[in-house]
Structures are given as structure tokens and as C-alpha cells.
Amino acid sequence: MDVKAKVNELLQPYLNEDQYFVVDIQVSPSRTRAKITVLLDSDTGITIEECAGISRKLGNQLEELEVFDSQPFTLEVSSPGVDEPLVFKRQYLKNIGREVEVLLNDGQTRNGKLESVGEDQIVIIEKPLKKPKKNDPPIEPVVIPFTDIKKSTIQVSFK
């Protein structure tokens, strides 16, 4: 079993029966010190304290099982930052109402407010390119199937 799969297996008891979910696991082997990065999330977010608790438990297990053959390693357990792409439907759901940038498989980019999340698609309201005039038609929601999405990220505004 590879290290990434082993880390994922060891994490399962700490996910509190699906309260938390694994967004990504990255393993960077090295001759001097391997690095494991685990990104966790939940429907309501995850605190630094929760990440630290999981990190301690997981780190102890990795040491006990000598996953890196007694070689030193660094373990980072954190929540995905705002620059990390949305990966799971659960992440889209908790970001309804926020501005998103959606890169489609065909190379097009759509920007707008995440209005809703369905079983197999998202709906965004795109920002108008210019200030709407009185007689302009209303802006129609854009339905984007998950299968058409290459990458979605939250857009942070400091206005």
C-alpha cells in the first residue's frame, strides 16, 4: 500500500463519522525529510484546534507504524485555503452566496455568485459586464454541470 493510501486509511477514524472529509492528501518523499500535507474540511468548517488534534493522533500512528522506515517526516493537517479549488459538492454547498470563478473544460471562464447547487450541477448568476440599463433584459442564471467544470475557486473581494 502506498503512503497516500495508508494516510487516508489511518485518517478515517478521526473524521467523526463523516463530519470531516478529506479534500486532498499530498506526499512529498525526500531523502532527508518527507512531507505529508492533509487538507480536511467539513460542512461548517474546521478549526485550527480540530486540525491540530487530528494531526497529533495521525502523526503518532505514522511514527508507530514506521510508515517512513524511521526516517523523519513533517505532517501538516489544515483546512483548504481560499485559493484551493472546490473539489466536492459539499464544498460548493457551504459556499452558496459567494463569488466564484469557474474554469470550464472547454477553456471558458464564468464568474458570478454561486446561487445554488444541485445533484449534478451548480447555478451561478454572472456579473454584468456593464451597468444594466432600465430596458436591459434580466440576467439569467447559468447552469453548469459538474462534468463541465475543470476548476472552481472562491473569489475574495476586499471592497
From TrEMBL:
Name of protein: Ribosome maturation factor RimP
Family in the record: Belongs to the RimP family.
Ranges for domain Ribosome maturation factor RimP N-terminal: 10-83
InterPro entries linked to this entry: Ribosome_maturation_RimP, RimP_C, RimP_N, RimP_N_sf
Residues of the Ribosome maturation factor RimP C-terminal domain: 88-158
Function, in words: Required for maturation of 30S ribosomal subunits.
Keyword Cytoplasm: yes
Superkingdom field: Bacteria
Subcellular location field: Cytoplasm
CDD domains: YlxS_C
GO biological process terms on file: ribosomal small subunit assembly; translation
Keyword Cytoplasm recorded: yes
Source species of the chain: Larkinella rosea
Main location: cytoplasm
Keywords from the named record: Cytoplasm, Ribosome biogenesis
